[in-house]
UniProtKB/TrEMBL annotation:
Gene Ontology MF annotations: methyltransferase activity
Native organism: Paenibacillus foliorum
Name of the protein this chain belongs to: Methyltransferase domain-containing protein
Stored InterPro entries: Methyltransf_25, SAM-dependent_MTases_sf
PANTHER family listed in its UniProt record: METHYLTRANSFERASE, UBIQUINONE BIOSYNTHESIS O-METHYLTRANSFERASE, MITOCHONDRIAL
Domain of life: Bacteria
CDD domains the UniProt entry points to: AdoMet_MTases
Biological processes annotated in GO: methylation
Domain Methyltransferase: 65-159
Pfam families: Methyltransf_25 (PF13649)
Record key words, sorted: Methyltransferase, S-adenosyl-L-methionine, Transferase
Keyword Translocase part of the UniProt annotation: no
Length: 235
C-alpha cells in the first residue's frame, strides 16, 4: 500500500524525506545537556570573544536579535545585557531550562523558545542581528538553502549575521555533503573551509572571517581555535 505521507510533490516533501535518513535531533540534544558537569567547552557561561569584540568596537549595537541554537544561553544573555531585545531558539528543552536559570539569576530578560528553526516563521526584515554559535555545522546540507533564505529574509536591510562553526580539518567531520547521506550521519558536525563559507554566503558582505581566538578558561570570554568566527552584512 502506498503511504500518502511518503509521496513527494514539493520541496518540503524532499526535505522531510532527507531528514528521515538522519538521527532525530531533539532527543539526542536533551540527553547531551542533561549532564551539566561534562567538560564541554561551550558549557562555560561566557560569551563568544568575536561577539564581544563587535559590540565593543561599535559594529554591533543594541537592537532586535535572533539567536539560532542558543544552547544554555550564554550569548543570548550577553546580548540582552547589552540592551538587545533577544529571541533565542533551541531544539533542546534541557538546554533552555539551563538558559532560563542563568537568565533569571542575572535578572536578564530573554524570549526563549523550544523549537526546530525550520518549523518557525519569522517576520521579514525584523532583526538587526541574527547570531548562530554552533548551529550551522549541525544542519544537514539539504537544509542550508532554507537556512540562508530564512536569515536573509528575517534581517533588516543592512542587518548583520554572526556565525561560529567548525573549521574543516581542525574539529568538524571531514566528509562531503553527499557522504552525509551515504553514511546517514553528520558525524558530530560538519567542518567548513573558508571557501565554502564564502560560497554559501556569497550574497552577503563579508565583514570578518577568521579563526576564533582561543581563550583559556576560566575567562570572561569564550573562544576555541577550531571554530570560525564570521560576521556578514545583508546587502
Amino acid at each position: 500500500m502506498i503511504k500518502p505521507s511518503e509521496s513527494i510533490f514539493t520541496p518540503d516533501d524532499v526535505n522531510k524525506m532527507l531528514d528521515s535518513l538522519l538521527r532525530e535531533a531533539a532527543p539526542w540534544w536533551n540527553e547531551f545537556y542533561s549532564d551539566r558537569e561534562k567538560g564541554i567547552p561551550f558549557f562555560v557561561n561566557a560569551p563568544d570573544e568575536n561577539l564581544v569584540q563587535h559590540f565593543d568596537n561599535g559594529t554591533l549595537f543594541a537592537g532586535r536579535v535572533l539567536e539560532l541554537g542558543c544552547g544554555p544561553g550564554r550569548n543570548a544573555i550577553y546580548m540582552a545585557q547589552k540592551g538587545c531585545e533577544v529571541d533565542a531558539v533551541d531544539l533542546s528543552q534541557e538546554a533552555l531550562n539551563w538558559a532560563k536559570e542563568r537568565a533569571a539569576s542575572l535578572e536578564v530578560e530573554v524570549q526563549f523558545q523550544c523549537a526546530n528553526i525550520f518549523d518557525l516563521t519569522f517576520t521579514p526584515n525584523s532583526y538587526d542581528l541574527i547570531y548562530d554559535s554552533g548551529c550551522l555545522h549541525h544542519i544537514a546540507p539539504h537544509r542550508r538553502i532554507s537556512y540562508k533564505d530564512m536569515i536573509r529574509q528575517s534581517l533588516k536591510p543592512g542587518g548583520y549575521f554572526g556565525l561560529t562553526c567548525f573549521v574543516y580539518g581542525e574539529h568538524g567531520a571531514q566528509i562531503t555533503d553527499w557522504d552525509v547521506y551515504r553514511l546517514r550521519s553528520l558525524k558530530g558536525g560538519l567542518g567548513y573551509t573558508e571557501q565554502k563559507l564564502r560560497m554559501l554566503f556569497h550574497d552577503f558582505e563579508v565583514v570578518e572571517l577568521r579563526p576564533m581566538v582561543r581563550k583559556e578558561q576560566p575567562n570572561p570570554l569564550f573562544g576555541e581555535s577550531f571554530l570560525w568566527a564570521a560576521l556578514f552584512q545583508k546587502r
